[in-house]
Design brief:
Length: about 525
C-alpha cells in the first residue's frame, strides 16, 4: 500500500510541474500525427522492398535472387523475428518505425533538458514532433528514423553517464545504443567521433582509465560486433562489406567517384526548416558560435560546462555536413538526419532565451513567444509533410498489386520476368526474378534456360511477365512491340493503372503460352 501511495504521490508531483504537462501534450500531438501517417503508403520503395524481402527470406526462406551486402541488418533481423512470430507489415511499421519516431521526440526533450534546461528540451522536442522529414520517414520501412532514435538516445545516455556521471549503467547504455546506431544506419556512426571529441575536451585522456567503459566495449564487441563480422565474412567473404563498398571501393564509393564537393548539402538547412525556423536557427547558431569563441579558453581549462554542450551541438551539425559535403561528396536528405537534433537544440536555445527576456516584463507573453516559435514554424512543416506524404503514398502501388496477384497465382519456385522495379515487386510476389534480357533472342533464351542473377541461378520457365511502366527502361520499346507481335504467346491477364481513368498503366501482367512458338522477325 505504501508503495502504491508513493507511486501515486510521484505521479501527482510530476504532473504538478507545468513543463511535464506540456511534454505530455507534445507527445500526444506527435503520436496522433504519426498514427495518421504510419501505414498510409500503398507500396514500397526499392530499399524498403529489399529490406522486407530479406526479412522474409530469413524468416521463411522466401526466394531472394539479389541482395546488396552493404545494407545494415539490425532491423531486418528484427523484422524476420517478428514475421516468424506472425506479425504483419503494419505491425513492423508500428513497432520499428512509429514507436522509435515517438521515442526520438521523448529523448530529444531529455537530451535538451540534460544539456541545457527544460525549456530547451520542450522547444526542441516540439520542433521535432512536427518536422516534415521525421513524419515522412515514420511512414517508410527504412533504417533512417530508427537510426536517428538510437543516436539521440545514445547522446542522452552519454551525457548522463560520461559528462554528468550519474551512474555507470548509463555508460553501458551509451555503448549499447551507440552500437545500435552504427549497425542500423552506418553514416550515423559519426556520433561516436563526436562523443570522443567531447569526452576528450571534458576529461582529456582520463576517460581511458574508466573500467566500466572498457568492460562495456569488451562485452559488446564479443556479444554483438564479433558475431556480426563473422556472419558477414561467412555470407559475403568480407567482415565489413559496408566499409569496403561505401568507403574503399573505387567502383562503388562516392569518395572515389566524385571530385567536386557536394555543395547541395548546405541547401538542406533551408529545405529542412523553411524560412521562419531557418532564421531562428541562424540566430541561434550565431549566438552560440559567439559565446563559444569567447569561452573556449574556459572549456579548455574545464571550467565551463555549458560550453561543452555548445561544442556537442556544433559538432553534431558540423561533422555530418563536412563528411557528406567534402569527404563522401554525395548525400540525400535523410543522410543528414543526424544534424537535426543539433539544429533543434539551437532553436530551443533561442526560444528559451527569448522566454527568459520577456518573462521579466510579462510571464504569459513569454510563454506565448516560446510557443509561437514552434507553432509558426510547425505550421509550414505540417503543410509540407501532408503534401509530400499524400503525394508519395501511391508510389509503386501498382507493383505491390501485381506482386500480390502473381503470388496468389503461382508457386513458390516459379520465376517471374519483370522489366524493372524488381524489389518493389518481389517484396510482395516473393518469387525468383528474371530480367527481359538485351533483345528478343536473348529474351527467349532466358524464358527457356533461365539466368544468373548476382550470384544465384534462376531457372527458366516463368509463368508470367510483368511489364513495369514506372521506370524508364530502354528495353521497353522492343519488348512491347515483341509482345504485341506475339499476342497468342503472351496474353495480358492483369493490368494496374496509375490514373482513375485507366489510361496510363503502371504494370501489366502477361501469361506465357508455351504452346505457341515465338515469332522473332528481327532482333532489335
Amino acid at each position: 500500500m505504501n508503495e502504491k501511495k508513493t507511486f501515486s504521490h510521484r505521479v501527482i508531483t510530476w504532473l504538478k510541474n507545468p513543463y511535464n504537462i506540456i511534454l505530455l501534450c507534445i507527445i500526444l500531438v506527435a503520436t496522433v500525427l504519426r498514427l495518421k501517417y504510419y501505414n498510409i503508403n500503398m507500396g514500397v520503395w526499392w530499399d524498403e522492398g529489399e529490406y522486407l524481402l530479406k526479412a522474409k527470406n530469413w524468416a521463411f526462406g522466401t526466394p531472394i535472387t539479389a541482395y546488396w551486402e552493404a545494407r545494415p541488418m539490425t532491423l531486418t533481423l528484427v523484422w524476420a523475428l517478428l514475421l516468424k512470430l506472425g506479425a504483419s507489415e503494419a505491425v513492423l511499421r508500428f513497432l520499428t518505425e512509429l514507436l522509435p519516431s515517438v521515442g526520438s521526440i521523448i529523448f530529444m526533450y531529455l537530451l535538451g533538458k540534460e544539456m541545457y534546461n527544460e525549456k530547451v528540451g520542450l522547444i526542441s522536442a516540439g520542433c521535432m514532433s512536427v518536422f516534415w522529414l521525421h513524419l515522412f520517414f515514420t511512414a517508410r520501412l527504412l533504417m533512417d528514423l530508427p537510426g536517428l532514435f538510437f543516436a539521440i538516445a545514445a547522446s542522452y545516455f552519454f551525457w548522463r553517464g560520461f559528462i554528468k556521471k550519474h551512474h555507470h549503467k548509463y555508460i553501458w547504455l551509451t555503448g549499447i545504443f551507440t552500437l545500435l546506431t552504427i549497425l542500423t544506419k552506418y553514416n550515423d556512426g559519426i556520433i561516436l567521433i563526436i562523443f570522443l571529441i567531447v569526452l576528450f575536451m571534458a576529461e582529456r585522456f582520463a576517460f581511458l582509465k574508466n573500467k566500466q567503459l572498457w568492460k562495456a566495449i569488451g562485452v559488446l564487441a564479443l556479444v554483438i560486433l564479433m558475431p556480426y563480422m563473422i556472419f558477414n565474412y561467412v555470407s559475403y567473404g568480407d567482415p565489413l562489406p559496408a566499409l569496403t563498398i561505401y568507403i574503399l571501393s573505387e567502383k562503388t564509393s562516392a569518395i572515389q567517384q566524385f571530385d567536386a564537393p557536394a555543395w547541395s548539402v548546405f541547401n538542406y538547412f533551408s529545405e529542412f526548416l523553411f524560412t521562419f525556423w531557418f532564421i531562428i536557427f541562424l540566430i541561434g547558431l550565431a549566438i552560440t558560435l559567439w559565446k563559444f569563441a569567447l569561452s573556449i579558453d574556459l572549456l579548455w581549462r574545464r571550467k565551463e560546462t555549458e560550453t561543452l554542450s555548445d561544442l556537442f551541438v556544433l559538432l553534431l551539425i558540423a561533422l555530418p555536413v563536412i563528411f557528406f559535403a567534402f569527404i563522401y561528396k554525395f548525400a540525400v536528405h535523410q543522410y543528414l538526419f543526424l544534424i537535426t537534433p543539433g539544429i533543434f537544440l539551437l532553436i530551443g536555445k533561442v526560444g528559451s532565451n527569448l522566454h527568459d527576456m520577456i518573462k521579466k516584463y510579462n510571464k504569459y507573453l513569454a510563454i506565448v513567444a516560446a510557443v509561437a516559435i514552434v507553432v509558426i514554424g510547425g505550421y509550414y512543416q505540417l503543410v509540407h509533410a501532408d503534401n509530400i506524404i499524400e503525394n508519395k503514398k501511391v508510389t509503386y502501388k501498382e507493383l505491390k498489386q501485381a506482386g500480390i496477384w502473381v503470388k496468389e497465382n503461382s508457386n513458390l519456385e516459379d520465376p517471374v520476368v519483370i522489366t524493372s522495379n524488381q524489389m518493389e515487386f518481389a517484396a510482395y510476389a516473393e518469387r525468383p526474378i528474371l530480367s527481359e534480357g538485351h533483345n528478343r533472342t536473348h529474351f527467349e533464351e532466358i524464358l527457356v534456360n533461365g539466368q544468373t542473377v548476382g550470384t544465384s541461378y534462376v531457372k527458366g520457365g516463368p509463368k508470367f511477365i510483368v511489364v513495369s511502366f514506372l521506370f524508364n527502361n530502354p528495353n521497353l520499346p522492343w519488348l512491347l512491340q515483341y509482345l504485341q507481335e506475339n499476342k497468342e504467346r503472351f496474353i495480358p491477364v492483369q493490368a494496374y493503372f496509375i490514373d482513375e481513368e485507366k489510361k496510363q498503366p503502371g504494370a501489366i501482367v502477361f501469361r506465357i503460352n508455351y504452346d505457341k512458338p515465338p515469332v522473332i522477325e528481327n532482333n532489335q
